[in-house]
Amino acid sequence: MLNQFALEETIEMWGGEPESEPIGKPEPVEDEAADQATSFIHTGVFKTLGVLFALQLVAFYAVFRSDAETVFIILICAFYLAMYLGTPLVMLRAGKIKQVKDPGWSRFLDMPVKINTGIITGREALFQVCIVPAALAITVFGICIILAATG
User: Fold this and answer.
1) For the chain, N or C: smaller number of CB within 10 Å?
2) At what angle do helices 43-64 and 122-150 cross, to 10 degrees?
3) Is the Cβ–Cβ distance between 57 and 78 less than 8 Å?
């Protein structure tokens, strides 16, 4: 409501109609894409997530390997990473959940995926899951390079 009110107020203030639709107006979802959409996330997404977190631990180990206490803390973090990534795998294998046939990585990236806010492509799902871990990995590498250069 606030955006619509602001738009109408701006139109009155400038004395004209907008040339295009307001930015952020949701596009209608095609029925065909909605019918084909699943909530399946490819295992490659989770592998990418695990690799990004593991790279952070490797960077920390490379910088702090001379201190035994810090290496012990990094090992504890690696254990928690294994628990974090391994628990869903164990639950999937232990449960009687019907597994979805893997469509392949390239097909997954183009197929529609249903999430709580609508339907996106697999590529967008990969981006949503991995953007924060990727940014953290880049930041950790930068910090470790600075620490290695100054220490």
Assistant:
1) N
2) 0
3) yes
Rounded-to-integer distance, Cα 13 and Cα 103, Å: 53
Distance of alpha carbon 23 from the chain centroid: 24
**Residue 20 structure tokens:** 């295009």
Beta strands 118-121 and 112-115, pairing class: antiparallel
Cα separation of 129 and 5, whole Å? 34
Residue 115: predicted pLDDT: 87
Give the whole-angstrom CA distance, residue 30 versus residue 91: 34
Residue 68: pLDDT band (50, 70, 90) is very high
What pLDDT, on the 0 to 100 scale, is given for residue 97? 65
> Can you give the pTM of this predicted structure?
0.69
Query: CA 148 to CA 151: how far, in whole Å?
Result: 5
Taking the C-alpha atoms of residue 18 and residue 7, their distance in angstroms, rounded to an integer, is 9
